[in-house]
């Protein structure tokens, strides 16, 4: 999404989830599963994972994969990220 498309809208960044227990669980799971990548993709992955979880879209690993497919990282195979999200959401892996 381009910044101009957000004109007049509320935007939550990773800092906006600083004191959020659900986001804390995601951050901890990313660390425990070795899913932390760089400072560009990891905040986006956590924001997307938080959105998916709050909207009940993490029923299985397939839905998690589809849910994060817009967050691109050329450095990872995504497995650890999907595993971290599945661990927090309770999705069978
Ligand atoms: S580690 Fe962040 S883009 Fe690949």
Written description of the protein model:
With 93 residues, this protein is mostly helical. The chain has a single domain (20-89), classed as [2Fe-2S]-binding domain (DNA polymerase, domain 1, Orthogonal Bundle), CATH 1.10.150.120. Helices cover 48% and strands 0% of the residues. The protein contains 4 helices and no strands. It starts with 20 loop residues before the first helix and ends with a helix. It binds FE2/S2 (inorganic) cluster.
CATH superfamily: [2Fe-2S]-binding domain
Helix-strand pattern, N to C? Answer: HHHH
Distance from first to last alpha carbon: 30 Å
Mean pLDDT: 92
Which fold name fills CATH's third level, the topology? DNA polymerase, domain 1
User: What is the CA-atom radius of gyration, in angstroms?
Assistant: 13 Å
Shape: globular
Oligomer: single chain
How many domains make up the coordinates?
Answer: 1
Estimated helix fraction: 40-55%
DSSP strand count: 0
Q: Poorly predicted ranges (pLDDT <50, ≥5 residues)?
A: none
Please identify, by name, the CATH architecture. Orthogonal Bundle
């Amino acid at each position: 999404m381009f910044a101009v498309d957000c004109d007049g809208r509320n935007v939550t960044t990773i800092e906006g989830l600083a004191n959020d227990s659900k986001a804390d669980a995601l951050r901890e799971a990313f660390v425990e599963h070795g899913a932390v990548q760089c400072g560009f993709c990891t905040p986006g992955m956590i924001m997307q994972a938080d959105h998916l979880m709050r909207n009940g879209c993490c029923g299985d690993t397939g839905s998690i994969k589809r849910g994060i497919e817009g967050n691109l990282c050329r450095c990872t195979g995504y497995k650890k990220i999907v595993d971290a999200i599945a661990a927090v959401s309770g999705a069978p892996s």
